[in-house]
Amino acid sequence: MNRTPKKSYLLLAGLVLSLSLTSSLAFSADGKTLYEDKGCTGCHGEDAKTPLEKGYPKLAGQNGGYLLQQLMDIKSGARKNGKIPDTMKPVIDELSEPELKLLADYLAGLKWASQGTPPDAAPPGKKLYLTKSCVACHGKEGMKPIMKTYPFLAGQDRTYLLAQMKDIGSKARENGLSNSMQPVMHLVNKKEMDAIAKYLSLVK
Ligand code: HEC
Ligand code: HEC
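^ inputs. structure came back:
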């Protein structure tokens, strides 16, 4: 009995299959490559914590659940506040959901820009942060969000922080879980928001 042809055919098929699996995994399993190839570096910085301009957020080490939610919402159009339509939307539109997941996982795995060390002389915004309920959800120094889907704020770009507070307050941003924060925003006026943004951006 000669079974060699069949066996070698099977072996060959197996080899082809495993090669193609390996190469597609090698391509898709790399959030870092996607982050570089899709141009994210141009606006958020190579290390994802050196944004190009004021008003652009730091992403490195942000909560994974939160990041994925934002990316999905930008893609679906649910988040369309501020600079999103002109900057992020066109880039994200080209990416698939599995690619967004890889990007979120990659970014969440990096080190967050701040270690949660309070600024030397506590600026006035700190007291507001503690008394206007922010600390209940975003945690001490903006560094201990109570859920995976809540963002870190410590050390974030000041202009970006202020813009998001205003937009969540006015409902220009109402994607994701922003409706849990929206009801407390009447507790702070624009000047107080600015003071809180300044304080949070100074957390080291
Ligand atoms: C042309 C500039 C630009 C490019 C390219 C860009 N972004 Fe952004 N991104 C922004 C700006 C600006 C914002 C904030 C917009 C606003 O709310 O006003 C933002 C917001 C985000 C947010 C939300 C952050 C938060 O704290 O809610 C995430 C996540 C994000 N970008 C990820 C990415 C990823 C991943 C890529 C690459 C696939 C990318 N961005 C490419 C400019 C850019
Ligand atoms: C009840 C919980 C809750 C309270 C209280 C709260 N927040 Fe939030 N905050 C959230 C959630 C949840 C999000 C993310 C919304 C989303 O899913 O898009 C958020 C988002 C933000 C963002 C945008 C972050 C980013 O990366 O885009 C800022 C800035 C912020 N909060 C500041 C504050 C400040 C300042 C206060 C106090 C005046 C406050 N929050 C009170 C839950 C809360």
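The pocket of heme C (ligand 2) is lined by residues 57, 69, 132-134, 136-138, 150-151, 153, 161, 164-165, 175-178, 180-181, 184, 188, 196 (CB under 6 Å). The two ends are 75 Å apart (CA to CA).
thumbs up if we can close this ticket
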